Amino acid sequence: MKPAVLAVLLAALITLPLAESVFQIPIQVSDSLEAIVIGAKYPSSWSLLADSAQFSTTTFRPMRYEQTRWLLQAAASTSLTYNTVFRAVHVALTVMLVLLFLLAIRVRRWIDVAAFAVAFPVLIGIHTFVAMLQEAFPVNHFAEVGVCALAVFVLARQSPKWFFPAIVCVLLAFALSVIESGAMVWVVAICCAAAGMRGMTRSSVVAATVLLGIYLLVRHALDITSPGIGGHGSGFGGTFYSPEELTQRFGAHPLGFIAYNVAGGLASLLFSEPRQGVYSLAIAWKTGEPHAVLLINLVSSIATSALIAWYAVTHLRGSRAGWSDIDRMFVVACAVMVVNAALNAAYIKDEIISVGGLFYAVAAFIAIRGLLETIPQRRLVASALIALFLMTDAGLWTFRAAGLHYVLRYDAFKTRNDWVELLRPDKRDDWPTDPQELAITRRIRDEVILRSVASPSFMPRWADRYWVE
Amino acid sequence: MRAPETTNPSDTKPAAGGVLGRAIAVPPIAWLVVSTALVIAASFGYTPFMTPIDLTLPEAVAARDHLEILRQIESGADPNRAERVRPDLVRPGGYMMTPLEAAVASGRLDTIEFLQQRGARVDATTLPDLLCFAKQQGAADIEAYLRRQAPADFAPRCESVRLPWND
């Protein structure tokens, strides 16, 4: 069996159950229902596209509603349930993330398979990956941006082709039209070009930059501003603050808080702390009760980040011209993580750094492979210690990745039960007055009621301690 | 912008690692083995990460699964009928309970309200037992909620009330 085939097989065996867990989550009430109702009520795609540009003063996400409308039409034409269609798209995005990761790292030798065996659990075990699976709006935009960003990275690894600029622009345009984090696609393109990756030509960079400029001009023309401090709740130290509290505390002098958020975003990628700006470790230190999940996340992340730091120190000593293709990939992965952290300026959220999480796994793969390659030159004791270190790290990441199933099942239970509050017989005054909205709400609710999900009461009770933060 | 394709000396080295290198693949492979074992076990009816398909209404109550409660009631389940609650859901042992008794046993006031809105009866026949269960459980909020539904001079004799469980 070829190494690449084994890697695909390993990825498939781990991804298929994950896809099942993603598929089990019903359509959400929060974030999803409103977009579905809007997508269904508009008479045409064009009128929806035109109006959606002005739905909000802080966001510009026309494709959010447009793709929702397309999926509703797909459900109507195929006679599938709404839940089936929307969840199938989410599953497809998950599978695409895994496939693109495989394409990005290119497993060709047995040593690559060994490195992949550690890096793949890093990819799906990191806390930012679950953000691409849990939420849906009703299609998870962060997963879409992740797919576009990885696709650009994969393109940059190829020999340049005349049509690459067009593909980069399509991916960037799509990502920007679903969520502001889509700018990460442009960041990836720029980083690839700056690092000298072959497939990212000057014309691709110019085209992508022009497109980003047009996007910013359109936002400006539509008076769409970015949410500043106070636009969203976020943590500081050991406390999570509401938007109002943040405005009160940091609104007048925001620079310190911005620096805290950017540093915190990077720290979150490298050490799994803080989460949403809150350092759980600080809380545990005070209370003297560190949670097992906190320690597992911290130790696995520190070990992997140390490995990434080791690779950077030992392989990037010379100038750019002396770097290998793998070194260039590594530099891009690290640069994307740093820039992604900067997007947390106003508030820290796992979803915002989800692209950085994907590239963290890429950097981990390269660093692990680099370490494994040194084994033949090392003494037996040193080699055994390296293997033990990697085995422990892989074990911790695998445990984190396995917990994803528990977290997703828990989320499916919670999401399904959110529908209880809708169309309550004792609260008819709260029912939608519009007949079309009522019909859609009733249809999705009926679908969700019939959807069987696992109750946490029937899952192992120790799981909360080890998998839920 | 473009740089010449270069190769790291390590790219051309022979595959290394041998047994030690492969050792790191042990944890993910162990995960695969566990997953496969779970899939095989599921085909024999053992599903540790799934809700049993023969879930009774009081069990759905004990599991705090409001939408399942709703589904069963809308499908015709009697919200006042005592049924099996399997072990470890609310008590170590398995017992027969009504949905309201299961809600009291699991200490969920919101589930009691939910059941009442959907036909579960809190009246002269059920109130004394439920009040005494709540008292025995130390569920002050449930006890207060139930007392508000009782006549002012209502004083049940809890010593004569038989609990649905004995562990």
Can you walk through the features of this model?
Chain A is an all-alpha fold. Chain A has one domain. Helix content of chain A is 70%, strand content 1%. Chain A has a two-stranded antiparallel ribbon. The mean pLDDT of chain A is 92. Chain B has two domains: 21-50; 57-160, Serine Threonine Protein Phosphatase 5, Tetratricopeptide repeat (Alpha Horseshoe), CATH 1.25.40. Helices cover 44% and strands 4% of the residues of chain B. Chain B is built from eight helices and two strands. Chain B has helices spanning 18-23, 26-43, 57-62, 66-74, 99-105, 109-117, 127-137, 140-147, and strands at residues 83-85, 95-97. In chain B, strands 1-2 form a two-stranded antiparallel sheet. The N and C termini of chain B lie far apart (75 Å). Classes of the chains: A mainly alpha (469), B mainly alpha (167).
Supply database-style keywords:
heterodimer; A: 469 residues; mainly alpha; two-stranded antiparallel sheet; globular; B: 167 residues; Serine Threonine Protein Phosphatase 5, Tetratricopeptide repeat; 2 domains; two-stranded antiparallel ribbon; 8 helices; 44% helix; elongated; disordered N terminus
From the N-terminal CA to the C-terminal CA of chain B, the straight-line distance is 75 Å
What are the segments of chain B in which pLDDT stays under 50 over at least 5 consecutive residues?
Answer: 1-17
According to CATH, the fold-level topology of the largest domain in chain B is: Serine Threonine Protein Phosphatase 5, Tetratricopeptide repeat
Computed over alpha carbons, the radius of gyration of chain B is 27 Å
Instruction: Bin the strand percentage of chain A.
Output: under 5%
Strand adjacency order, main sheet of chain B: 1-2
What is the radius of gyration of chain A computed over CA atoms, rounded to a whole number of angstroms? 23 Å
